Amino acid sequence: MGLTHCMKRPAEILYNRLVWPRLPNKSKCINSFGIRFTRNYTSEQVNLIKHLRERTSAPMKEVKSALVACDWDIEAAQNELRKRGVALASKKFSRTAAEGFLALAQDEKKAILVELNCETDFVARNEIFQHLALCLAKSALVIEGSSQASAAIPVSPESLEDLKINFDHPKLTGEKTVQNAITEVAVMTGENVKLGGGFAISAPSYGVISTYLHTSPMPGIGRIAGLLSLEVEDKDAPLDAVQRVGSQIAMHLVAAKPLFLSKEDVTSDALGNERDILRSQAEKTGKTLMAIDKMVEGRLRKYYEEVVLLEQKFIVNDSVNITKVLANLSQEIGSTVKIRNFLRVEVGEGAKRLEDASGTEPLSQTA
């Protein structure tokens, strides 16, 4: 047995050097040792492989297999890949998809944010993945409405899955449902791709919607988003300055991570939990009860400055808080300006927030 094993490798080398070069057709050839030789393709077949790969972005192995199975008919092979793709994609749907991008679309009346997830940052940077995300946001903007002015409301993935979109990308063409398009992109990228839902915010009766996207590789795409609606009391007041300051506050949302709009919006649970923590810390100092009460109240003011938007120091100018920024803006345009609502969303948290929010109630301002 040992002798046979030792002689096998030299025999393979001798065969490869003397017999293999003389074979007239190397395609699908297997020698007596069970070694399968690489298929040689004609230049025409190589071009078909290249074109089908460019059309579908499917793995090279699948492209070659489909063409061989369909006798090198590229149209039939493309259909075959789509059939296989549904089965392949379904196997990926159970895998974790926490990467991706947020896509933003807006007009004068509302803005909508849609989250599209994948498994890795590598696929998130894929041009076809980003194109799909933008198309989803733009289409959702057309159909999604809000019955509550200036309210941020959740948009469930189920409400968008059957939406039909007419795609015009070289690798994603024709009218498809959102779910079918997602399946095709999952096949192209080889990862689980899923819709994480979205959020919509409507403009006030008179004012602006301001937005900001952080880590944005292209317009309308980003990893963190800040949105807010600013209401202006006087309908004759100019809006240019409002939009300018609104854009700065939207950037502030991304950096400062506010949890609530005003002190009155802080929930009793959040306030009670923070008060308990602060009191426990103060009691360890061994000071009197009166001193502990003062320490707790002083630290609560610091807590408000950290989590309440109107109390936070402005990131553009930390000598003033957001309340003062709005007061200065109101004086500049000659009309009272108020923040009606705001929204901060980061990739990976959208699905959880949709689970926590009721589909029939406005989404509270949270980071």
TrEMBL record:
Keyword Nucleotide-binding attributed: no
InterPro entries: Transl_elong_EFTs/EF1B (IPR001816), Transl_elong_EFTs/EF1B_dimer (IPR014039), Transl_elong_Ts_CS (IPR018101)
Molecular function via GO: translation elongation factor activity
GO biological process, alphabetically ordered: mitochondrial translational elongation
Alphabetized UniProt keyword annotations: Elongation factor, Mitochondrion, Protein biosynthesis, Transit peptide
Domain Translation elongation factor EFTs/EF1B dimerisation positions: 111-349
Pfam families: EF_TS (PF00889)
Annotated function: Associates with the EF-Tu.GDP complex and induces the exchange of GDP to GTP. It remains bound to the aminoacyl-tRNA.EF-Tu.GTP complex up to the GTP hydrolysis stage on the ribosome.
Protein name in UniProt: Elongation factor Ts, mitochondrial
Lineage of source species: Eukaryota, Viridiplantae, Streptophyta, Embryophyta, Tracheophyta
